[in-house]
Predict the 3D structure of the following.
Amino acid sequence: MSTLTQDDKKRAVARKAIDFVPDDSIIGVGTGSTVNFFIDELARIKARIDGCVSSSDASTARLKAHGIPVYELSSVGELQVYIDGADEVNHSLHMIKGGGGALTREKIVASAAREFICIADEAKYVSKLGAFPVAVEVIPMARSVVARELVHLGGHPELRQGFTTDNGNLILDVHDLDILKPLEMETAINQIAGVVCCGIFARQHAHVLLLGADDGVKVIR
Ligand SMILES: O=C[C@H](O)[C@H](O)[C@H](O)COP(=O)(O)O
């Protein structure tokens, strides 16, 4: 029986991720409870980095509270690493993200990085994506038209109630999608007019997965 809680595993992968932070660099930082542990670990070594590019207002606030400089993405060049959590990750290191609604900025910052380091506990490691609903960020006026298209793709979209993204948009959480080919499903959703971004990260897949398990942190490439 496991003696480690899910938070223990998140803390362990957050600590391990520090090994992947290059000296004197600006790193991309994701969003969520696992990343919050990572930001707290980063604070301990903040003297050896130049700062971060953040993927959400929440992460920016936490970084700044630790006195870690936060830069605009447009004012920096290519990032060496982007470190973020996931809601699900498969064996090809494709992910579902967006449980916290930060998917669009996460995908943008990830696209600017050479390497995506995913930090997650083992409950999120799956052979097939899709048990976790796919978040789709939509322009508010397109909500119904996008929802109908998502039904055509086999999903059951549900509006995330009382939630607005950092970009002022809405989230549809799409249940029951049959994601046999993550890249194809990501592309199909992205092609719907009114969609800003979808939470399938197949194009911006992870390069390294740090997986928190009962017997320690596994490094999967
Ligand atoms: O929008 C949120 C992000 O995609 C998170 O990376 C994802 O939801 C995982 O968050 P957590 O570490 O809290 O499980």
Notes: The chain is about 30% helix and 30% strand. Residues 6-17 form the longest helix (12 residues). The pocket of ribose-5-phosphate is lined by residues 30-34, 84-87, 97-103, 106 (CB under 6 Å).
